Amino acid sequence: MNRRQPSEPLPDIVADAKLEAEVHSNYTKHFYNSSSSTTRRRIRVEIWARDKELGHGAFGVVHRERCDDGTVTKLRAVKTIRKTISGHKVDFTRELEAVMKFSHGKFRHCFVQSYGWYETSEHIFIAMEYLEHGDLQKHLAHPLSEQEAKLITAQIIEGLGFMHENGFTHRDLKPGKNIMVVTPGPKWFVKIADFGISKRRHELSTSLHTQGQGTIGFAAPEALGIIDPGRSYTSAVDMWSLGAVVYKILTGTVPFPNMQEALSYCTGKSGFPSDMLDRYCVTRDGQEFIKALMKPDGWRRLTSTTAAKHPWMTQSDHRSAQI
């Protein structure tokens, strides 16, 4: 989250996605200009009624909304974000830029799509596609097979690759809220969501500086500031998070549930916690893949490109090397 000078214009991709809206307590009214080659411009109105809450977090809440035009009922998810946090006015331009950029057609299979955004004096609203199966966390009551884990992982890697190639870092990748399920297993189809704290790296730099970002259990140690506090970090933080996600998918737990255990591992006082991977008979390739994603030094971790080429990912079946 940044602070944009009042006189600084919105990026075109953000300005063009802004919707004309009249926001009420339990519904929103949108106004669209509608015209064709044979008709003059006219105003089309859509009314979206707030249906139910889907989730909430530190910065806002997500609701499902319903629009019934008499012939078809449409559903969408709307994220409501407060403009003022802890008494400070916050600018979400970069976050909106990420959402709108990755709603482009060529990224549609990797990211939850946005239909646009609108605002009031106190809130920003982001309209998104509604996915009835919810987030991945809801489907992890039991560990999944390695074959299913690979299918999910390959899709996440592709999305992270697009983000990193375009100069964005997610910084809060996790199964809950941020990895959404389009089609449940065994033929998984997932999308990356929630760019609430994603950042675009400066054109002349590949590093980020804001620490204390992310979720314990999934966030990289440098993003949480538990190693090298004050130092910048890179998109390698997303690769650590991916490792924790894969570990969670395969075992039902995270490798480092608290900062103390992560610190102990990163400083060499303890080894990588492979006991749960052994318990669920995760193959040698699978274990090495996770460890290569979660190396203490960010520059040593797999990138989205090298992760996609790792032996665990390129194996088409379960014949990868056994422990």
Automatic annotation (TrEMBL):
InterPro entries: Kinase-like_dom_sf, Prot_kinase_dom. Pfam families: Pkinase (PF00069). One of its GO terms (molecular function) is ATP binding. Residues 48-313 form the Protein kinase domain. This is Protein kinase domain-containing protein.
